[in-house]
Amino acid sequence: MDNYMITSLRNPTPLLGDPCIDRNLRTMIYTFGYRGKPNGPATTAVLQTYLSTGKKNVILLDWQEEARSGLLGIPLGYALSAVPNAKRIGQELGAALITLSQAGLNMSEIHLTGHSLGAHVMAYAGRWARERGQVISRITGLDPARALFEGTFAIKSGLDRTCAKFVDIIHTNPGNYGTSKSSGTVDLWPNYSPDDGMQPGCPRGSYSMFTPEDLCSHDRSWRYLVESVHNGTSFMAASADSFNTWLGMDSPPATIYMGDLANTRARGNFFFTTNSQPPYGKGMMGVLPSGQRARRNSASIISLN
């Protein structure tokens, strides 16, 4: 990632003159979440993986300064600084995309991807552009942040299916760091269980906030995405109205791939299982709910004691 240029959201047009940008390719713009960094593990993995394919223009939206917790600490820094900044930065990105569109960038070839609070940044960008007559082609939300966007204290409107022509959301820590409601065009639920929002292989217990152990399930969203870019058919998901419907299936009525190969005509909820360690994808075997049946039965027995 040594060959790059930096430009301001307020003056984005130099991007179109950069030799790194091929107007014949789709453009993927990625951003991180609260307290994220341009050289953080998620950003590095996602950017390097997409760059290695050579199939897309790759752009990073760097809002590290605005995403800091600062002296306020993690909870207050999130609520009082990062969340308001996410809206402002997202709207600035939306305005920049309109400027780029007017300068010749094809909006139908734009794919926004954001992790955690970054997913809502992309939502604000998409909503801003749509309200001004330009609709983003696709937004991928990697376990969009739940705090202040869902539940009793929800005060913000985050990523939903209206933000782009196609919105796919990968929920890996629902009800905890990630949202727990279906809000995309397609909502993907790897290893879903109504009893917890944990991914297999992640440690259970009480950990300090924002440590790797604490974020393990939340971070699986970008880890699954990275693997899917390397192998587009590694994650297959089954269509089902609900988790219980999926549990009762012997064979799914319809399936899609998670990731770039997702069928953009698909709608609704999709469920699948993964391995507990890399490679996570199980292909066609992942659409079978047998492992989740065992988890559900075990959880039900425990709840009766």
Automatic annotation (TrEMBL):
It is found in: Secreted. Signal peptide: none annotated. Residues 24-280 form the Lipase domain. Its main location: secreted. GO terms for molecular function: lipase activity; serine hydrolase activity. Gene3D superfamilies: alpha/beta hydrolase. Keywords: Secreted. This is (African queen) hypothetical protein. It comes from Danaus chrysippus (African queen).
